[in-house]
Specification:
This protein is an alpha/beta fold. It contains eight helices and eight strands, in the order αβαβββαααβαβαβαβ. The chain has helices at about 5-15, 35-45, 80-85, 90-100, 100-110, 135-145, 160-170, 200-210; strands at about 25-30, 50-60, 60-70, 75-80, 125-130, 150-160, 175-180, 235. An eight-stranded mixed β-sheet has the order 7-6-5-1-2-3-4-8, sandwiched between helices. The longest helix has 12 residues, at about 5-15. The chain starts with 5 loop residues before the first helix and ends in a 10-residue tail after the last strand.
Length: about 250
């Protein structure tokens, strides 16, 4: 299945989620690329939309290889398959994650500003991204939602590899996907138009959902780029990111 763009994928995903998500849900869009998809889902479900900030952790000297992810709040997840191939341990990933903490804190401040986070206690959190290749970012976002008190956490994305889908089903209360794709796929392969978003463009979807942004659709800035259930994979916690240092 090929989607025209993220908005089209979000509309199709929303139609499927209507049958799977109870009322009082909050949609958490993974910044950046997940927010255009999440916006469509939130509008369809008449749910609040919030960004959730996640940083992927790259292997040393291999920026294209994801060995884990760190989400706002400090939860770290490990891509076990990649780490085994590279001979990395959980402690190695934790050390790499610490190098991302300052940048993560800056992006959290950018996306959340002074807005108090929505109370997720007892509610269903729907984590939405534009795809999942390793599942590390999805798991980190899901654990961030559980740490905020969500009673049920659903992950939804237009396209996921079969192996990753199986792993995510061990951690999330539900996983909703439109297209199961081969392993090692690039998210962009599922889209006719797949632009690299700026943070400003992604945040505009949150403002629109809250009724205080511009009426026009945000435009991409760059050309297309080539519960309580136990966690299914190792999880580390670094704690809350430190305060942002003054310029």
């Amino acid at each position: 299945m090929i989607f025209r763009d993220r908005e089209h994928a979000g509309q199709m995903l929303a139609a499927k989620l209507h049958r799977r998500v109870p009322g009082e849900a909050v949609v958490l869009g993974v910044a950046r690329g997940g927010l255009p998809v999440a916006y469509q889902v939130a509008c369809s479900l008449e749910a609040a939309l919030e960004p959730v900030v996640v940083r992927r952790i790259a292997a040393p000297g291999e920026p294209a290889v994801c060995v884990g992810a760190i989400a706002e709040g400090g939860a770290v997840t490990v891509n076990g398959r990649a780490c085994r191939c590279l001979g990395l341990t959980e402690l190695d990933v934790a050390d790499l994650a610490r190098r991302e903490v300052v940048d993560l804190a800056r992006r959290v401040r950018f996306y959340h500003g002074e807005e108090p986070p929505l109370d997720l206690t007892g509610r269903t959190a729907v984590v939405v991204d534009d795809g999942a290749t390793t599942g590390a970012s999805a798991r980190a976002a899901g654990r961030a939602a559980r740490a905020r008190g969500a009673a049920s956490v659903v992950f939804a994305a237009p396209a996921i590899p079969a192996l990753v889908q199986a792993e995510l089903q061990e951690e999330f209360d539900d996983v909703v996907v439109l297209e199961v794709v081969p392993e090692h796929f690039a998210v962009s392969y599922c889209y006719q138009e797949f632009h690299r978003l700026r943070d400003e463009d992604a945040l505009a979807y949150v403002h629109r959902a809250r009724g205080r942004g511009e009426a026009a659709q945000p435009q991409p800035a760059a050309a297309p780029s080539a519960q309580s259930r136990p966690p299914a994979s190792p999880s580390l916690t670094l704690g809350a990111p430190p305060p942002i240092p003054p310029p």
